[in-house]
Amino acid sequence: MHSNPLPQKGLRDPPASGSLLSTTAGFTLLEIVISVGILVVILAIIYSTFNSSMKVFSAMETREDAYGQTRVILNRMAEEIGSTYWSNANPNTGLLGEDKEEDGLPFDSLHFTSLSHIRWVRDSRESELCEIGYYLETDREMEKTFLFRREDWNVDGTLEEGGITLELAEGIDGLNFRYYDGEEWVDDWDSKAKGGLPKAIEIVLLVSDPTRKRIAFSTIILTPIVGG
């Protein structure tokens, strides 16, 4: 008759096959791959949303900058045009507005004498009277349109020539002037042919925002300064 041996102290029954691996191995390789895949998808969604938001915000900043610049330019043009001067006694004074078009957009020009010149040097031989011109030019290579301002302190009757020309802005799609003669608005004006200045002048600047949406900025200026 055989008796069962006494269990030795500290010994346990061996674990069932595979149970040790399942309790100590943690995640399986397949579970890790799935988890990483899900994490990548979530990060991609977060980045896409953030990137889209930043693009929208950047576009809004650029659009506001463009609009602000356009308003500043429009205000400056209005101030100088509002100081237009013409006199029968001075044949060198006048206003010449030409109606032009390029690629289906208004490309008008305006040249006039104005009492808006600022003398920066005391006792210099300069007066407030000057010639000013506004017009657009397109650079075909750069595919951009530029707004230029010309100022000539020598008022010699050549309204379209001389002086210093500076670039005011780029990306102006169109520039349109209209002139009110007291009865109707017309598209061009020559003070020599008309015998004087228009009652009012309308300025329209066409500008495109970053989404290529075209916006028109406009204002109307009275021309009250007329000599005898």
Main traits of this protein?
228 residues, alpha+beta, 6-stranded antiparallel beta sheet, 12 strands
Explain what this protein looks like in three dimensions.
The protein has one domain. About 11% of the residues have low confidence. Strand 2 and strand 3 form a beta hairpin. With 228 residues, it is an alpha+beta fold. Helices cover 28% and strands 31% of the residues. The chain has a six-stranded antiparallel β-sheet with strand order 7-6-5-4-1-10. It has a four-stranded antiparallel β-sheet with strand order 9-8-11-12, covered by helices on one side. The protein has three helices and twelve strands.
Estimate the mean pLDDT confidence: 79
- Provide the helix percentage: 25-40%
> How many strands in all?
12
Major sheet summary line = 6 strands, antiparallel
What series of H and E elements makes up the topology? HHEEEEEEEEEEHEE
Distance between the termini: 147 Å
The helix tally amounts to 3
Question: Approximately how much beta-strand content do the residues carry?
Answer: 25-35%
What's the oligomerization state?
single chain
Estimated structural class: alpha+beta
| Coarse morphology | elongated
Order of strands across the main sheet? 7-6-5-4-1-10
Radius of gyration: 38 Å
Unreliable spans = 6-12, 16-24, 53-60
How many domain regions? 1
List the helices and strands and how they pair.
Blueprint: H1 19-24, H2 29-81, E1 95-98, E2 101-102, E3 105-106, E4 109-114, E5 130-139, E6 144-152, E7 164-170, E8 172-180, E9 185-186, E10 189-190, H3 191-194, E11 200-208, E12 214-222
Antiparallel strand pairs: 1-4, 1-10, 2-3, 4-5, 5-6, 6-7, 8-9, 8-11, 11-12
